Amino acid sequence: MRMIIERYKGYLFKIIVNVVRDEAEAEDLTQETFIKMVDALPDYESKGFKTWISRIAYHKAIDAKRKRSRRHEELTEEFEWQSTPSDSAEDDWLQQQKQNKVVGSIQQLPQGYRGVVHAYYIEGKSYSSIAHEQRLAEKTVEMRLYRARKWMKNNWKEDEF
């Protein structure tokens, strides 16, 4: 095993760093690639080891890049939601009306999504605090928010807000 790691670590690191563009993350993903390789060895069909392990590394890097992109989107959405101080009472009133409409619209969501959506977007709580308060697994909170966003995208029109 050590010989395989020594032989391929530099090669896999180059593949991964070209995708993720971050050396520290690429080092971690290279290690994860070897762990994944060990788990996937029973499925290996003896057809080009270097190609097989390269494919594992490439897919690990793509998954990490997608995950980073989703996290960036969530942070951007959260930042856009927070209101900015305005110069006039009219702007404050319009912002408050918009927020009231959104809060009212949350009531249209399926029952399982309302609590996590309100806690995350309106109250600004983290996944872990929502999970703790609602006695759910953190992964369940993440999945409910994902499904709620999908439901909103399919059922609400953008011009309604």
Automatic annotation (TrEMBL):
Residues 4-71 form the RNA polymerase sigma-70 region domain. Keywords: Sigma factor, Transcription, Transcription regulation. SUPFAM superfamilies: Sigma2 domain of RNA polymerase sigma factors, Sigma3 and sigma4 domains of RNA polymerase sigma factors. Residues 106-152 form the RNA polymerase sigma factor 70 region 4 type domain. GO terms for biological process: DNA-templated transcription initiation. InterPro entries: RNA_pol_sigma-70-like, RNA_pol_sigma-70_dom, RNA_pol_sigma70_r2, RNA_pol_sigma70_r4_t2, RNA_pol_sigma_r2, RNA_pol_sigma_r3/r4-like, WH-like_DNA-bd_sf. Pfam families: Sigma70_r2 (PF04542), Sigma70_r4_2 (PF08281). One of its GO terms (molecular function) is sigma factor activity. Residues 66-92 are annotated as: Disordered. Belongs to the sigma-70 factor family. ECF subfamily. NCBIfam families: sigma70-ECF. This is Sigma-70 family RNA polymerase sigma factor.
